[in-house]
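Input.
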Amino acid sequence: MRHRIIIHFGELTLKGQNRREFVKKLRQNVRKKLQAMGFGADSGWDVVAIHDRMFVEVPEDYQTDIETVLQAIAEIPGIAWLTHVYWFSAKQYDLFHPQPDLTFIDQLVEKLGQETYHEGASFAVRVKRADKRFAMGSKALEKRLATVLLKNTPWKTVNLKHADQFFYVEISSRGLAVFTNRIKGAGGLPVSSTGRVLTLLSGGFDSPVAAWLMARRGCNIDLIHFTANHVRAHDLESYKVSRIARRLSEIAGKVRLIMVPYTHFDLALMDKGLDYDLMLFRRFMARVAARVADELHAQALVTGDNLGQVASQTLENIVSMTKAIDYPILRPLLAYDKDEIIAHSQRLGLFEICKEPYKDCCALISNNPKTRTYHDRLQAVEERFFPEYQELVQQTLDERQQLTYVFGQRHMPRQPQPAEPEPIHSAKP
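Output.
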């Protein structure tokens, strides 16, 4: 018997001729996640894709809790559901003999029944016989295993349609798998299958969830954050936004966090006494982000805007910000309720970080923002009062700092090695 983790695809099964590429991306992401956890292919954790599913081969000598590995893999976008299975090779156990010895299945199901029992609950057995060479029919094996559970374990109630606990047996040409309840995956598409986006990340709940939603739709996600001042190097990793980026990378793989100060524009804005300070600032952020997106080869910006949630997110202000740049701005949370956003944040393990006190840069810029602004009017104000606009953008970019995480691990760029001196050849006489 071997342990395996079986992974089932969701949307990937609908991808037709492109399906192979989507499956390849998912396999790569699962392998990289395992490697970041210390479970590389060189230590026996092989990831194999077959037909409509994928499986992770667990080394025979692995003794730690497999459930921890399951929960970590379940976060990876592109997975519909997964489960820990007990795997029996068809050849080793002679499964296609006219009268196979099925004692090993009885013993395992009895053991699982003892481990999973909870008082007053019901159970059901489900058998899927994909290879009809297996002598016993599905219904007959279901009855046999249900009898084992009723006779030898505390389970006493069968509910074929709405059981509290299921026991599954699947038989294929390769072997036989036994498992209990499935774990729901993140769904969506594998990261790196649909493009790259740059998310304007604040310290609140919304933008991290927006970034995750785009990762769930197959995007590589990078992040840009505007800081009140230059963050000291030794404080970078403990910074709240850095910890948000790290957590997102545990789900989405490689994530680059670019931090830029907004002080240059803030100082330029301070002595102007303008009524549109918040929207002028948001347009400035969009322009800086567009420059960074261009350098990172991102195809769109992403924000956590939620229609009507705050003054800057009225429809008029959203349009004013959008028209400031040529880049498309995606807003996956536009129609969400705040409760829905908070629920996502909790499920993603971001809630405790995001609720920590933090002064959002937009709140510092304006205490009484305009709820309705218009692009033409704002553009006229920018041209009149900020003749040095591009210089402000460049000064901001010149002070950027960057952190890169890969599945939760800090990635340090390689330092260039000094070139070896060329040998000195003496001139021939």
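Residues 2-184 form a domain with the VC0802-like fold (CATH 3.30.2130.30).
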